[in-house]
Amino acid sequence: MATPPAHTGVLDLEQVRAHTLPNGLRVRLLHDRSAPTLSYYTFFQVGSRNERLGTTGISHLFEHMMFNGAAKYGPKEFDRVLESRGGHSNAYTSNDVTAYYEDFAPDALETVIDLESDRMRSLRLTTDSLEQEREVVKEERRLRTENSIFGLMEEQLESLVFLAHPYRWPVIGWMDDIERITRDDCEAFFRTYYAPNNAAVYVVGDMDPDATLELLERHYADIPAGPRPAPVPQGEPPQRGERRAVVRYPAQAPALLAGWRGPAARSSDSAALDVLQVCLAVGESSRLRRRLVQDEEVAVSVSIGWGWRIDPGVFLAFAELAPKVKSARAEAILWEELDRVATKGVSGAEVRRAQALLRSSVLHELATHHGIAHALGQAEALLGDWREAGHALEHYAAVGPRDVRRVAAEYLDPSRRNVVALDPEVKR
Question: Is residue 76 located within the same domain as residue 192?
Fold first, then answer.
């Protein structure tokens, strides 16, 4: 299937070869010989938003299961075979997607396609492998959430921001759910969400698109399509007032985490919130860094988190407070600074600085085959079109001070605020 022209000045997507196999597997190939390397990404359109209570965390658990062997390549063979060809692999799970990738030299392409198609076709799902990976994930949850100040606070915050949407539970899942997931749950999950019609493959680098497409068709075409995944519930009620929670945990000082429900990734406001994020908390000259850390000395660090999601996500503000500082004082200063942006806006110089930093970040990602493949996959998964990967700089360039002031006023409304305070426990 030919693609329409997509000249961006940074990433020329006119050369992307886009094709869909009869079983629904989407394929996007970009030939680039600037370096003798290849990156191979497989995006499955499944994350924690596709789960249900009782099996939360199954998407992340399944990421681990995917390295336990299939019909042709047995347990632990995936990485051994790939590394013997000079390549390496990894994977991640988010609220919206699960992605697997390999970086390697061009002569290993057929081996990678054979490895990936083998586990999509016939993943090995045994009781022993499930128990093994279950314990690994439980330990990961203990380390990253239950023994992490930010992890505990973020988990609590998401459950305040969302009352009904699946974003309310953590990507890693609740511990009780991780313990109760069965092999039958995994089998049903695999048939539905790891079917070719719920996946897309992105290959970027030094390869022949025609020959690569022929290889992909030969290895993947016989994998049957799966059932259509169930729609994600969208019945989140409007927030009509501030919501609060307190987390008690041994710590040297208090901490503060605030969050507001933002727009979906496809909203034009997402780019303006990226610019706002940089203006507020990226770099020494950012507003919150100057006010809370340098001038008032109420915090030792401050950060803003704004990650694009398929459905409306969360705009976060996190501050680790200085010892003996009262949370109420730090809160008052934070709300004052956010209100100042919402009512008076930011300067043109601040916006230009933010745009320069965002431009640098985009260019850094698009400087490698790995980054391009990931950008294509993320754009298609979150925005519905891989071509959007080439338009990020245009979106940022179109943001002006009025846009930043408008999104700050609209999304950071105090009546839509959610606040989690850390109350340090005294060790006895």
Answer: yes
Give the pLDDT confidence score for residue 428 in this predicted structure: 53
Whole-number pLDDT of residue 6: 40
Predicted local distance difference test score (pLDDT) of residue 426: 64
252 and 391 co-located in one domain: yes
Tokens representing 181 are: 């997931």
Distance CA 213, CA 16 (A): 12
Domain CATH code at residue 66: 3.30.830.10
Distance between CA atoms of residues 62 and 64, nearest Å = 5
Residue 288's domain comprises 243-425
Q: How far apart are CA 112 and CA 380, in angstroms?
A: 22
Distance CA 132, CA 130 (A): 5
Q: What pLDDT does residue 425 have?
A: 81
**393 and 334 belong to one structural domain:** yes
Blockwise average pLDDT, block size 10, the chain, 428 residues: 40 90 98 96 98 97 96 94 97 98 98 98 96 97 95 97 97 98 97 98 97 98 96 93 96 96 97 98 96 97 97 98 94 98 98 98 96 98 96 96 98 98 79
Task: Report the half-sphere exposure of 218 (CA within 13 A, side-chain side).
Answer: 10
Alpha carbons 409 and 418: distance in angstroms, whole number: 16
Comparing C-alpha atoms, which of 242, 144, 125 is closest to residue 186?
A: 125
